[in-house]
Design brief:
single chain, 349 residues, alpha/beta, TIM Barrel, Arc Repressor Mutant, subunit A, 2 domains, eight-stranded mixed beta sheet, three-stranded antiparallel beta sheet, 12 helices, 14 strands
């Protein structure tokens, strides 16, 4: 479920988000609810949703009263086993906002912290400071969230292993149960695009960071994701990696049903006018296979052996001899997530 409003546009962000048009929030949520009702009726009759992820943009820029109708629509499709995550930013996820979202049934919260260093936050154009991030995470724990994620970005030009460790130690000192550590990427349409000087490409740094996170009690289960315990792993993420079907609700969201991706309009005004108009992309069996291989090697899921041709299996054998991958229970697993793309492309060449 995509909420496309933000207090500020981060210099690295390529998501569909707006720092203006706040006057459209009410109309937008009405349109989103219309699409949600339509998609649930069409695809999910007599089914329960395994997970819901409210992302953005910044979901915490929306007053909880506008989510009331959304959760009313959802009530017959969720139960106590549904993982319901909301993203939030420390400057807008007040204690009151968090509490009201929890009352709707949200049971997992993710904070876009990125760093606890004031200078880095300014240069990334984040709308919060270190203290507000610390307070927001503490508030989440105090009101009863036990599944709390903290996003950290690394690979910015001022980063050293020491100041990243400081960020991580600050996160570890808080009641955080899940950590997403992302390498900065320079994407088209962002302020940082074409500014290669803002990014550090240092593979050794990634290995050091991952090692440090693991030593502090968080197990890596995907290239960017670490959890304190298996129960804190994101079920929603696993849904994508396992190629499960999902609804994409909101301007700029993506859905995946019956081997087709569907895209509601990205344009806010267009979406509000007609939230159930979609662009459709048909995926071939080959497209699906490539995605399963790429995603399976990026995380602990692995890839079914049966998916590969005879020629591909020869290359699998070669990589086993090279000790890059291993086989267990008719699945191929990757030993090093940072090499996931290279391994996948080598096997599928």
């Amino acid at each position: 479920m995509h909420i496309p409003f933000c207090d500020s546009k981060c210099h690295y962000c390529a998501f569909n988000s707006y720092t203006t048009k706040f006057n459209l929030k009410k109309e937008y949520m009405k349109a989103l609810n219309k699409q949600l009702q339509h998609d649930l009726y069409k695809y999910c009759q007599n089914k329960k949703l395994e997970t819901i992820f409210i992302g953005g943009g910044t979901p915490s820029t929306i007053n909880p009263k506008y989510y009331e109708e959304t959760f009313k629509i959802l009530e017959n499709y969720i139960d106590e086993n549904t993982e319901i995550t909301t993203e939030s930013n420390p400057n807008s996820a007040t204690r009151k906002w968090q509490k009201e979202m929890m009352n709707f049934g949200v049971n997992r919260i993710s904070f876009g912290v990125q760093s606890f260093q004031e200078n880095k936050l300014k240069e990334l154009n984040r709308a919060h400071n270190a203290n507000s991030a610390i307070t927001a995470i503490q508030n989440a724990s105090c009101i009863g969230f036990d599944s709390i994620n903290c996003d950290i970005i690394y690979g910015f030009r001022t980063d050293t292993i020491n100041n990243i460790k400081e960020d991580l130690l600050q996160a570890f000192s808080l009641p955080v149960t899940h950590l997403s550590a992302y390498s900065l990427t320079l994407e088209e349409g962002t302020k940082f695009f074409n500014k290669s000087e803002v990014k550090i490409d240092d593979e050794a740094l990634s290995y050091e960071i991952f090692d440090f996170i693991e030593k502090n009690g968080f197990s890596q289960y995907e290239i960017s994701n670490f959890a304190k315990d298996k129960r804190f792993q994101s079920k929603h993420n696993f849904g994508y990696w396992e190629h499960k079907e999902y609804l994409g609700v909101g301007a700029g969201a993506v859905g995946y049903i019956n081997n087709r991706r569907y895209y509601p309009s990205k344009d806010l005004d267009e979406y509000i006018k007609n939230p159930i108009s979609y662009e459709i992309e048909e995926l071939s069996n080959e497209d699906i296979k490539v995605e399963k291989v790429l995603l399976g090697f990026r995380c602990i899921l692995g890839v079914e052996l049966s998916i590969f041709t005879q020629d591909e299996l020869k290359r699998v054998e070669h990589l086993i001899k090279e000790e890059k991958i291993y086989i267990k229970d008719k699945k191929v697993y990757n030993k090093n997530f940072l090499l996931a793309d290279e391994i996948a492309l080598y096997i599928l060449e």
